[in-house]
Design a protein that fits this description.
Layout: H1 2-8, H2 11-30, E1 43-49, E2 55-62, E3 65-66, H3 68-77, H4 91-103, E4 110-114, H5 119-128, E5 143-147, H6 153-163, E6 167-171, E7 176-180, E8 185-187
Parallel strand pairs: 1-4, 6-8
Antiparallel strand pairs: 1-2, 2-3, 4-5, 5-7, 6-7
Helix pairs in contact: 1-2, 4-6
The structure holds zinc ion (ZN).
Zinc ion binds near residues 114, 138, 143, 145 and 178.
């Protein structure tokens, strides 16, 4: 993805890249048409991992690019807690969460039920639950299951649907909403 390449380029290269006017293309790739909420130049997220009780509050995008150390911290918090495996979480998923939080007018940390899942963990969960897809995008680091303190689950679902930028699953019995950066679809 263009944004990720830019984030890894040395600062001087990135400046040149932006100076050439390609920055607008980068932004277009990050912001799907019709996004309900635009977010600022400084993207901040906070999480509570409900399985490990770990918390994180970090600015993962600033001054025109993703912050590698912050992304690593997020990857670690959202790891497969059952196996300890860490995988890069799709930065577009983080951007989606920022827009979601803005849409909900909330600064509360996301409560995380599930982030990255290794294939072994996903297969185990899928064998025990109809609600877990065998080809889940959790295995690609492209999905997260969340709730938002102070907001009804329906509000979270509606705010996610309003983004029109991926899948939205509604799980009232388990009290979470699934969002991902796959194609636009909904269930539950
Ligand atoms: Zn999910």
């Amino acid at each position: 993805m263009a944004g990720r390449v830019g984030a890894q380029a040395p600062r001087s290269n990135r400046r040149r890249f932006l100076a050439l006017g390609l920055g607008a293309i980068t932004c277009a790739a990050v912001w799907p048409a019709g996004a309900a909420v635009r977010i600022s130049d400084r993207r901040r997220l906070s999480f509570v991992n409900l399985h490990t009780d770990e918390t994180l509050d970090t600015v993962y995008w600033a001054d025109g690019s993703y912050e590698p150390d912050a992304l690593k911290s997020i990857d670690h918090l959202l790891r497969d807690f059952r196996t300890g495996e860490v995988r890069r979480i799709d930065p577009r998923l983080l951007d989606l969460l920022v827009r979601l939080r803005a849409q909900l007018d909330s600064t509360a940390p996301f409560h995380v039920i599930s982030g990255y899942r290794s294939p072994a963990t996903n297969a185990m969960l899928a064998s025990h639950s109809d609600g877990v897809a065998s080809g889940s995008l959790h295995m690609q680091g492209m999905a997260i299951d969340i709730r938002v303190p102070g907001r009804e689950l329906r509000q979270v679902q509606q705010a996610a649907l309003a983004q029109q930028s991926g899948g939205v699953g509604y799980y009232p019995r388990s009290d979470f909403v699934h969002v991902d950066t796959g194609r636009v679809r909904r269930w539950g």
